[in-house]
Request: fold
Amino acid sequence: MKSPVYFASLRAFSDHESTTAKVQRLFDHAGFAGLIAPHDKTAIKLHFGEQGNDGFISPVYVRQVVEKVKAWAPCRS
Reply:
């Protein structure tokens, strides 16, 4: 079975279409929230390349995913 691939252009023409907003919408559209239950331990891969290479993910975008995960699966305090 083939896995779906999600794509969003990095061009931004407004705040609604900012790259950070697109990362948040990709998280929602891909259904990642349904994979995380409250109190699950969740790992987020932060790095698979070096800055300046195609495989580098800016921490600004990773933060969007972290915030979504925290909203869906709050940690025990």
Observations:
- Residues 17-34+51-77 form one domain.
- Helices lie at 19-29, 59-72.
- The radius of gyration is 14 Å.
- The first helix runs from residue 19 to 29.
